[in-house]
Design brief:
660 residues; alpha/beta; six-stranded parallel sheet; 6% strand; elongated
């Protein structure tokens, strides 16, 4: 049995490595966000600082490289889920024409530049290959963080990146032929491309036929652990199979995402994988930063900056020309060209392959390799800023194109509706009642049977666990009028409320099945809690009053909302000179009217809620002043007004009124 924990002999090596990576990513990511810079820049700088050439906090890079590779796989997998086969089919011309022309022009420009500087044609073609590729991981991460994954610019650059990843297959096979004594290898090249095409076609067939029912069966188990493992298995398994056929693992992972996107469980899959993707993607960007030798950069600053300018010019100009062939307009073409202006991570794979056959960037030997690494890292650092510049250039046209895209999209746009988190008989009936009153309703549930039942009742459904942010975002929670949490356990209720509250300011109602922890729900952000037992009692009482000849509440009297949570923060009391904040707890009004007045059939004026026990009594303007009488009898010192549009509390002992 392997030893996992050590009781002596120092800190385990894996723990030191993991701690350095995660802590440095968190620190630099924090300061990046504080400075309003995308976290990628912070991750890259963290890698530069802790890398072998600087502080040397990480000297063994093998484990880091493995984690970085996994980060690229997960990132492309989530992009594939968001993209979908329908969008892929809509941009196939962009892939073939735009992507093909970009790779051809950039490769030719790189080869021409090297030849003009005195290099041979084989070295020039090799260098052109290195320049032609862009960073799929960084570009797609920047796009995703800016919310542009589904925009015209996002789809445009993704089309080019897909072709680049396909081109890597041919480039890896051609590099040995460019080396000393290499031959053409045309048969091998076309054979590999044929196998890659067959694998891709097979994956797409599986996406349509096999994957949706399979994920439906797994989701029916209602086991988050099994669902997560199945989704990760699909991701890694597809990437592995495609890599066997010579296709890059990033493209394989993207195809796996497309496979999952065809299932109604795609939102849930995305939300499950996202936390892992964030962690491993951060490691990838750190690993890139670790490649930079700052001493070499400073000693050769003019050469490196010249190389950065040359490569950036070639990439932007050739990409812009390629995109112009798609008739997307000059601003959009330039914007896409700026996004594609860096050198990609797969160029490092080509550098390694080239070194084995005597090829180096520009034919400059080891110094050329160092210049290439420094240029690549600097361009990656510049990518978020280039993307922002491109966004400003394309903004007028992008707004028009996105409006057209939105109007023709088959996706559901949800707004001014009610989101119900959790499925059940009560949830379905409530949804039907709201729809009968012309209120739009969207329900979230992971249960396939529950989804079918809700849809049969005419309710819009988002398949996924409402505890996840992405599921609630897809349900349109930011534009919802109200949120109803109807989860099956106390723990899930609080988690769902907290997640929903982080996304919306709309009122949140909770319908607990069992005895709920009111303090926990209030702290999580619940505004109303509908206690099922108390609600049944009140409904029964209301139905009995008239047949028994007993008076009910009069329309002109104030009524307490028995679902509203009264939870006044302790700072409100302490900041107003009241010393009784310890006596208040989150409470629900016990009755809708003054308890004592209801028992005697009397009327009241205005209602106050005891913040210690939830007692509802009438104010001092009422004939019997039952709120003050409750204080005198039970010594509960603080109350709050239950009147609509009033938010103040009062302490009988200290005679202090406090707004909250």
């Amino acid at each position: 049995m392997p030893v996992i924990l050590e009781t002596g002999g120092g800190v385990p090596a894996y723990l030191s490595l993991t701690a350095v990576l995660v802590v440095s990513a968190a620190i630099f990511g924090f300061f990046s966000v504080k400075l309003k810079v995308v976290p990628i820049v912070g991750f890259l700088l963290a890698g530069v600082l802790i890398g072998p050439a600087q502080l040397g906090l990480v000297s063994e890079t093998e484990a880091v490289d493995a984690a970085a590779e996994l980060g690229v796989i997960l990132l492309l997998f989530t992009i594939g889920i968001e993209f979908s086969l329908q969008r892929l089919a809509s941009v196939w011309k962009w892939i073939v024409i735009g992507g093909g022309l970009q790779v051809l022009l950039a490769s030719a420009a790189g080869a021409g530049l090297v030849s003009a500087l005195g290099g041979d044609i084989r070295t020039g073609i090799f260098t052109g290959f290195l320049i032609a590729l862009s960073s799929t991981a960084i570009v797609l991460k920047v796009i995703a963080d800016a919310g542009e994954s589904k925009s015209s610019r996002g789809r445009l650059v993704l089309a080019v990146l897909i072709f680049q990843d396909l081109a890597v297959v041919g480039m890896v096979l051609l590099v040995p032929a460019l080396g000393e004594g290499g031959d053409g290898g045309a048969g091998e090249l076309f054979g590999a491309l044929g196998i890659a095409a067959a694998v891709i076609a097979g994956v797409l067939v599986v996406a349509r036929k096999l994957m949706p029912p399979l994920l439906e069966r797994i989701a029916a188990l209602c086991s988050p652990e099994v669902f997560l493992l199945a989704v990760i298995g699909i991701c890694l398994g597809t990437a592995y199979l495609t890599s066997l056929a010579g296709v890059s693992v990033s493209l394989g992972a993207f195809l796996a995402g497309l496979v999952v996107s065809e299932s109604r469980q795609s939102t849930q899959a995305f939300s499950e994988v996202l936390p892992l993707q964030i962690i491993f993607s951060a490691v990838f960007f750190i690993s890139v930063g670790m490649l930079l030798n700052v001493s070499f950069l400073l000693d050769n600053i003019v050469t490196v900056l010249s190389a950065v300018l040359l490569v950036l010019t070639i990439k932007v100009v050739t990409a812009t020309l390629a995109l112009l062939s798609l008739r997307v307009g000059f601003p959009m073409a330039v914007s896409g060209g700026l996004l594609l202006g860096q050198v990609g991570e797969f160029s490092f794979v080509l550098v390694t392959a080239g070194a084995a056959v005597g090829l180096t960037p520009g034919g400059l030997g080891d110094e050329g390799s160092q210049i290439f690494v420094a240029t690549t890292v600097v361009l990656m650092l510049l990518t978020p800023f280039l993307a922002a510049a491109g966004r400003r250039i394309a903004r007028p046209r992008a707004r028009t194109e996105n409006d057209v895209e939105s109007s023709s999209s088959s996706e559901v746009h949800r707004e001014n509706h009610v989101v119900i988190v959790g499925w059940g008989g009560t949830s379905v009936r409530l949804g039907q009642d709201l729809r009968a009153r012309r209120v739009a309703v969207t329900m979230t549930t992971l249960n396939p049977g529950g989804s079918r039942e809700a849809e049969a009742a005419g309710i819009d459904v988002v398949s996924g666990d409402g505890l996840h942010r992405q599921v609630l975002l897809d349900a349109g929670i930011k534009d919802a009028r109200a949120v109803i949490v109807a989860e099956d356990t106390v723990e899930n209720e609080a988690k769902a409320v907290a997640t929903a509250r982080s996304l919306t300011d709309s009122p949140i109602f909770v319908r607990p099945l069992d005895a709920s922890d009111l303090a926990t729900l209030s702290e999580a952000g619940a505004d109303h809690v509908v206690d099922p037992d108390a609600s049944a009692e009140r409904a029964l009482l209301a139905s009995l009053l008239t047949p028994l000849g007993l008076p009910g509440p009069h329309a002109e009297e104030s009524i307490a909302d028995t679902t509203k949570v009264f939870d006044v923060d302790a700072d409100v009391f302490d900041g107003n000179g009241c010393s009784h904040s310890s006596s208040r707890v989150p409470v629900l009004p016990r009755t809708s009217g003054c308890e004592e007045c209801e028992m005697s059939g009397q009327q009241w004026v205005h209602l106050r809620v005891c913040l210690t026990c939830g007692h509802v009594g009438c104010c001092d303007s009422s004939p019997n002043r039952h709120s003050r009488a409750h204080f005198q009898q039970h010594a509960h010192p603080v109350i709050a007004s239950s009147e609509r549009d009033e938010s103040w509390a009062y302490c009988f002992v200290d005679d202090v009124t406090m707004d909250y």
